[in-house]
Amino acid sequence: MNFSQNPLKKRIFLALATLPFLGVVAAFGIAPDTASENISRETVVETLALQAAQPSDNGAFDFWREERIGRGETLPSLLQRLGVNAEDRQEFISAVRQSKSIGGLIPGRSVLARVSSSGRLLLLRYLVSDTTLVSVNRIKESFQVTQQTIQAEMRPIMRSGFVQGSLFGATDAADVPDKIASEMAEAFSGDIDFHKDLRRGDHFSVVYEAFYFDGQLIKTGRLLAAEFTNEDKAYRAVYFKDPQGRDGYYSAEGQSLKRAFLKSPMPFDRISSGFSVARLHPVLNIWRSHKGVDYAAPTGTPVRAVSDSVVSFVGKQGGYGNLIVLNHQSPYSTAYGHLSRFGKGIKRGGKVSQGQVIGYVGATGLASGPHLHYEFRINGDQRNPLAMKLPTAYPLDSRYRAQFAAQAQPLTARLNLLRNTNLSKLD
Ligand SMILES: [Zn+2]
Questions:
Q1: What is the distance between the alpha carbons of residues 210 and 208, in angstroms, rounded to a whole number?
Q2: How many CA atoms lie within 13 A of 385 on its CB side?
Q3: Which range is most confident: 29-43, 59-73, 157-171, 306-320?
Q4: Which of 26, 135, 304, 368 is spaced 20 to 30 Å from 234 by Cα?
């Protein structure tokens, strides 16, 4: 695309490139990937939706942020995560206290806000129940709180983008919410280690639910379908819930994407990704003489079991520091070293399920800085997990295949459409 033909989009790109993304970098005190984040915004600018950044009255740019309410979360901490400045946090809290409409924050529900680059809160929408919407609008220097009964309408949203520096750089630029980016990483977590496998030029398409009322976005739903092309190999995921209520992601052919082993013991989120994907280097450099894979991440980042297992060791062991060894189905075992602490209830002989948090990143033992040292072992010998083909795939229950095919068809048609659009952009 030629920028000169579209001055509005060009202006938006320039504004985005010069603004840190709502202090995300600053919030975690790291900036390993700042330069490449800017590059990735430039390359996917044509998929950037205009609603992502809108000039406000003073000419600055505003952002839509959506955050999920955490367990035990307070209103001040939620507003801070949304990027709201101290002055508006205080103002907002006294406004809602008077109206009494935001009683308690319900964990797991999400809050959508439009915030200016200087942290001015312009608008906030909170779906207290599926049919009760609380809206807070800025009227000059005060906030007006309204509560209404609504019927939300679901509209699928399609987005796509190219990876230049990091996955979150690319999803930001394509205006894909973090929640959807993480769900995509999770859906492909049996096939792709997003910390290590990601390459420049990888691309993705997503179809996800968005709920609207009165023409306005009130919340993002779940990822419905995704395609991720990693090193020229395309993976697809389609969401399906069977009549018994079991749900998950499947290939377009109806193979479950759930694997006996996760590709990575590190969940993929914005915090941990900022550390490792700054270096998009080949696997050769990672698999070093010490026969393990290192994941740099802040102390305290959760570490998860890659497969169902029994704990065979938990405690201190020489250079490994705090170590956990898990035995999986024979002949596989995995080891997790340098942990700062162990997960709740992790003890020798105990059962652990896939994805369960077993400990937290640290720098105990011989470690120059906080990281996870991860080993994959076959009959006790270390192997490179990044280079391994592991046992796979449970097919979908044959009773539901017709139903799956009917639901998957329109979603894969959308992915095809996005793929063709992507390819034509490359020409
Ligand atoms: Zn190591």
A1: 7
A2: 25
A3: 306-320
A4: 304
**In this structure, are 41 and 164 located in the same domain?**
yes
414 Cα: distance to centroid of ligand 1 (angstroms): 42
Query: What's the 363 CA to ligand 1 centre distance in angstroms?
Result: 11
CA of 113 to the centre of ligand 1 (A): 41
State how far the Cα of 212 lies from the Cα of 154, in Å rounded to an integer.
6
Predicted confidence (pLDDT) per residue in 392-409, tens digit: 656 788 899 999 999 999
**Spacing, Cα 185 to ligand 1 middle (Å):** 24
Domain with 318, as residue range(s), is 288-383
Q: Given a cut of 60, is residue 53 above it in pLDDT?
A: no
pLDDT tens across 126-179, in order?
A: 988 888 898 899 988 888 888 889 998 999 999 999 998 888 888 888 889 888
135 and 192 within one domain: no
The answer to whether 238 touches 153, Cβ cutoff 8 Å, is no
The Å distance, Cα 374 to ligand 1 centre, comes to 7
392 domain residue, yes or no = no
Give the residue from 356, 386, 390 showing the smallest Cα distance to 374. Answer: 386
Same domain, 205 and 250: yes
Specify whether 251 is located in the same domain as 313.
Answer: no
Tell whether the model's pLDDT for residue 247 goes beyond 70. Answer: yes
Q: How far is the CA of 84 from the centre of ligand 1 (A)?
A: 39
